[in-house]
Design a protein that fits this description.
The protein is built from 3 helices and 37 strands. By secondary structure, it is mainly beta.
């Protein structure tokens, strides 16, 4: 009996050691990030040698790319010119895109330059102007990199807002900014030349979203509320006409606003997923998820209605592994929106959470309640629900997103959490069994060496082989856009 007990104890200790996260190092680097509504500072990209590269700000240069290894040792740092717009992998190099001009009042403009950096040394191996911005109107560009580095594409939406000085800055909710005069898709070859440029014929609708598939085909989805249809079209690089358009009926309330349409490509060829929230004819908040197969021209749909009964059942089913988080904060479902959609290990993960603006002693704050994960198989059959029981408040949404990773059968998440004020922000680490959805671990990340009030820049967490790197940022202050940084290394 003693031997059995000893064996079980050892197994438990081995499991605890493997599932716990321990701090290995914390640094305060000499670089920082710049904060703005369109800032890509702090954006990271993982490299093949178990390291990462990040966009940072440095004195006396416009910006730089720094590479850190799995011990937080700086491998290299490369100063570059312009205002950074994107970073990713292209072929066997790091590709950085920067605009030549940028101001708070007029956004970015001028020429867009692409830099190719050697991922091992940071050496600038190529530099080329790849796009000339519109001189009179604001543009809304986006950039797409294949996970394997096989393609690089960009889109640009020409808005109806003129480039003019305004003391109030740029308001993305303004009708002129939301107006689309033109939308283009550009594909680049290995030498950063424009291989193809098309102005796609858009599917009918008034709320749309664009994404890129694993094969490099573009997906544009548009909600036609009057007709009650979601129109989804796919395009190849050489034609403005859609290769195929699929219409999906949606029982949407005519006055309902679509909070967002998010989409992602499956590892299955020509299969894409989409998700958004809406009000059905009974005024009930509904999460819509669709699987679209362009090869067969078919679709499958999941509609989950979040009435009070269903919400109570979901919260009641939560099995806490940490007594401090025994009930998820998931109440204001009228403000439910899609926060995340991606495929991991052959399963689709859709994350939704209530987000709303509320006045407080700090002024106007954004509140983000707990995240609800719904996991489907590749045929859109529901596998499980699970909560990430965080509650977070921020001034403008900074730090509100969650970082995700799948390794083996462990699905990991990192999220910021507030205890009582902006100055008491902490970060949470969770582990799920990705087959059953069972919560295995939920704990606070060690923060003794982190400055009080700093939050995890969750979009920039780098998940490495046996560790993960977390950048922390200080909150933005009035009339200050420079944010100091701390970087923490934790081992699994």
């Amino acid at each position: 009996m003693t031997k059995i007990f000893t064996l079980l104890s050892l197994l438990f200790l081995c499991y605890f050691k493997s599932s716990a996260q321990t701090q290995a190092a914390v640094i305060k680097p000499p670089y920082s990030v710049l904060a703005a509504y369109d800032s890509k500072y702090g954006t990271t990209v993982n490299l093949p040698d178990n390291s990462m590269a990040m966009i940072v700000s440095m004195p006396n240069v416009d910006f730089a790319i720094v590479s850190l290894d799995s011990k937080l040792t700086q491998k290299w740092i490369s100063p570059l010119a312009g205002f950074p717009l994107a970073v990713g992998k292209f072929k066997n190099n790091i590709l950085v895109v920067a605009a030549s001009e940028r101001s708070w009042f007029k956004s970015f403009s001028g020429s867009y330059t692409a830099y190719l950096l050697d991922e091992n040394t940071g050496k600038n191996v190529a530099e080329k102007v790849i796009y000339q911005g519109h001189p009179g109107f604001l543009e809304d560009p986006d950039f797409y990199f294949a996970k394997d580095g096989s393609y690089f594409k960009m889109t640009t939406r020409l808005t109806g807002m003129k480039r003019k000085t305004s003391l109030s800055g740029i308001d993305k909710t303004d009708k002129d900014y939301r107006l689309t005069q033109n939308f283009s898709i550009i594909e680049f070859d290995d030498m950063l030349n424009q291989r193809n440029k098309i102005e796609p014929k858009m599917p009918a609708g008034d709320t749309w979203n664009a994404s890129c598939s694993a094969e490099g085909n573009f997906l544009i989805s548009s909600m036609d509320r009057a007709a009650g249809k979601l129109n989804v079209a796919t395009y190849i690089s050489s034609s403005a006409d859609p290769l195929k358009t699929i219409s999906i009926p949606v029982a949407i309330r005519k006055s309902s606003e679509i909070s967002s349409i998010q989409s992602t490509a499956s590892t299955q060829p020509f299969v894409n997923y989409l998700a958004f929230t809406y009000l059905n004819p009974d005024k009930e908040t509904t999460v819509f998820v669709a699987r679209v197969d362009f090869k067969t021209g078919t679709f499958k749909v999941s509609n989950e209605v979040f009435d009070s009964k269903h919400t109570k059942e979901l919260k009641k089913s939560f099995q806490p592994v940490n007594k401090k988080f025994d009930e998820p904060e998931f109440n204001k479902t009228d403000f439910l929106s899609v926060k995340h959609i991606a495929e991991y290990g052959g399963k689709l993960v859709v994350g939704v959470a209530p987000s709303y603006v509320q006045l407080s002693s700090y002024g106007s704050l954004i509140f983000d309640e707990s995240l609800l994960l719904t996991v489907f198989d590749q045929e859109l059959r529901e596998v499980f629900h699970q909560f990430m029981p965080r509650a977070y408040m921020s001034v403008n949404g900074e730090g509100s997103k969650i970082s995700y990773s799948l390794k083996g059968n462990l699905f990991r998440m990192i999220a910021n959490h507030k205890s009582s004020s902006l100055g008491n922000t902490s970060s949470l680490y969770a582990e799920l069994d990705f087959n059953t959805g069972q919560m295995l671990k939920l704990s606070k990340i060690p923060s003794e060496d982190i400055s009080r009030g700093n939050y995890v820049n969750s979009e920039s967490v780098s998940w490495l082989d046996n560790s993960f790197i977390i950048p922390y940022l200080e909150r933005q202050r009035v009339l200050s856009t420079k944010l100091n940084m701390q970087i923490q290394l934790l081992n699994y």
